[in-house]
C-alpha cells in the first residue's frame, strides 16, 4: 500500500512572460516521475519575471539567481534530493553519472 | 495594479485512472480564464476513482456525486461563482444564457 506523504512542490511563474505552459509542463513531469511521492503540485501565477520552484517550502530554483530555466533532468534531481533522496531517476540520472 | 488575492482551486484526480492530463488541462484552462483572480491551482494525485474540484476548500465538483466529468464551460461557471461572482465569461456563459 502506498505510504501517505505530505510532499509539496510549488512552481511560481510570471504570467506576463507567458510561462504558464512551461510551468504546467514541468509540473506534469514531476507528478509523473514522483507519483506516490508528491501530495500536491502547486501552480502559482506571478509577475515581474518570476520563475521559482520550491520543494516543501525550500527554494530549489530561482530563474533570477540562476539566469536560466532548469533542464527537466536537473529539476528532477533537485526535487528528488528533497523529497525522495533514495530514488533512482533512470535516464534523468545519467548526465550527472557520466 | 492587480489586487492581491488568496483564491485557491484544487483538483484531486485518480492516478490509477490516468486522469492527470485531464486535471492539468482543466487547471490550465482555469489559470488562463481567471488570471489575476487565482493565487494558486493545486494538482493533487489520488486513487480510487477520485475526481474532485474545490474552490477555496468548497467542493464544487465530485465525479462520484455527479456521475461524470464537468464540461469545461460549466466548471468555469462554478469556479466563477465562488471566486469572481461578477465576472462575465464570454463564450462560456452562453450555454446557460441561451
From TrEMBL, chains A, B:
Keyword Transmembrane helix (UniProt): no
Coiled coil recorded as keyword: no
Transmembrane region(s): none
Any Pfam family the entry gives: Rdx
Keyword terms: Redox-active center
Database matches in SUPFAM superfamilies: Thioredoxin-like
UniProt protein name: SelT/SelW/SelH family protein
Lineage, broadest ranks: Bacteria, Pseudomonadati, Bacteroidota, Cytophagia, Cytophagales
Amino acid at each position: 500500500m502506498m505510504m501517505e506523504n505530505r510532499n509539496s512542490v510549488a512552481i511560481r511563474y510570471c504570467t506576463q512572460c507567458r510561462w504558464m505552459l512551461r510551468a504546467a509542463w514541468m509540473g506534469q513531469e514531476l507528478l509523473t516521475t514522483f507519483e506516490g511521492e508528491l501530495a500536491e503540485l502547486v501552480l502559482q501565477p506571478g509577475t515581474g519575471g518570476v520563475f521559482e520552484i520550491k520543494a516543501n517550502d525550500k527554494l530549489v530554483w530561482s530563474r533570477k539567481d540562476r539566469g536560466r530555466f532548469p533542464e527537466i533532468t536537473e529539476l528532477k534531481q533537485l526535487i528528488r534530493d528533497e523529497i525522495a533522496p533514495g530514488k533512482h531517476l533512470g535516464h534523468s540520472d545519467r548526465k550527472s553519472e557520466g
